[in-house]
Design a protein that fits this description.
Number of domains: 2
Strand content: 5-15%
Number of strands: 6
Order of helices and strands: EHHEEEEHHHHHEHH
Helix content: 55-70%
Shape: rod-shaped
Strand order of the largest sheet: 2-3-4-5
Number of helices: 9
Keywords: Membrane, Transmembrane, Transmembrane helix
């Protein structure tokens, strides 16, 4: 949906498809990169959550195993044949590795699955003492926490680099719009590019909470909203001369529906982007209509006959 230019109006710039191509290319890159990073975040979060759930289950199983081993040791204390029974129950029938300490044979055994250290003291074949420490299955190499890819990936490094670049581009575009009026329309588009880039880089941050509370409580997102509103105002103030009515063309409707379908297929990030684009479009065309009406009233006053 775009305002239709005045026919045969020399003040209206000629149609330029280069800007449209630039917008299409920009949105394609922005949405693709954002979707990739969002998917990386979701995949990594799911992996971390699965690990935490597995560790919680392992810890619960380890506590049960501690109770079982403790009960077994208490039942075999000072019992004949305890050593052979424990070797069968705990060490797959293999003899314990022992060392002499204070006239007794001491074996230090660690549970292979739950990392449960157990110290056994034997006098001959009898169990004369034992001690158990807390099980720690998470310390085993096979249970190590997966690396948080979303915090150290190449995509994350690019995301971190993009935000300051977007801010710098936004500032430069504002200066151009203020002091080089010939390029104010291009500068307004650059401001919008920078605002959307900064906002997307903020939304796909690894620990960003994409919710109402997360949006309201996030300083970076608040700054992105300010950039977005400034860019909308700049585009509305530099929009080419328009009629009072807005026209919908089939090509524009097709592009809009295609973009909406793509965003809806992207999940929460796409829903958020669709809301942002919808609100921005509504604000932009409202500002354009207000500017057009104001220009019309100003033109009517300037053409009024002087007494």
């Amino acid at each position: 949906m775009t305002p239709a230019p005045l026919a045969n109006n020399p003040a209206s710039p000629p149609k330029s498809y280069r800007l449209a191509i630039a917008w299409i290319a920009f949105l394609a890159v922005l949405l693709s990169a954002s979707a990739y990073k969002a998917q990386e975040n979701r995949r990594d979060l799911a992996q971390q959550q699965a690990w935490h759930e597995r560790m919680a289950q392992l810890q619960e199983d380890a506590q049960q195993e501690v109770q079982r081993v403790d009960t077994l040791l208490e039942s075999l204390w000072k019992q004949p044949g305890a050593r052979a029974t424990l070797e069968q129950e705990l060490n797959n029938g293999q003899p314990f590795e022992v060392h002499e300490s204070e006239g007794r044979e001491v074996a230090n055994w660690v549970h292979p699955e739950y990392n449960l250290p157990v110290q056994l003291s034997f006098s001959g074949d009898e169990l004369r003492g034992f001690s158990l420490r807390g099980a720690n299955p998470g310390a085993l190499p096979e249970n190590a926490q997966p690396r948080m890819i979303r915090l150290k990936s190449r995509a994350e490094r690019i995301r971190q680099a993009v935000r300051p670049i977007a801010i710098a581009c936004f500032v430069v575009a504002v200066l151009i719009a203020c002091f080089v009026h010939r390029y104010s329309w291009i500068a307004a588009n650059l401001m919008m590019f920078a605002a959307l880039t900064y906002g997307a880089a903020t939304v796909v941050a690894p620990n960003y909470n994409l919710s109402v509370q997360g949006i309201v409580s996030n300083d970076a997102m608040f700054f992105a909203v300010i950039m977005y509103l400034i860019a909308l105002a700049a585009m509305a103030s530099t929009w080419p001369t328009v009629r009072h009515e807005l026209q919908f063309r089939l090509r524009e409707l097709l592009v809009a529906f295609t973009l909406a379908a793509i965003l809806l297929s992207m999940g929460p990030l796409g829903y958020f982007a669709l809301v942002v684009f919808a609100i921005g479009s509504g604000l932009l065309f409202t500002l354009v209509r207000l500017r057009t009406k104001a220009d019309g009233r100003a033109g009517g006053l300037s053409n009024a006959p002087q007494n």
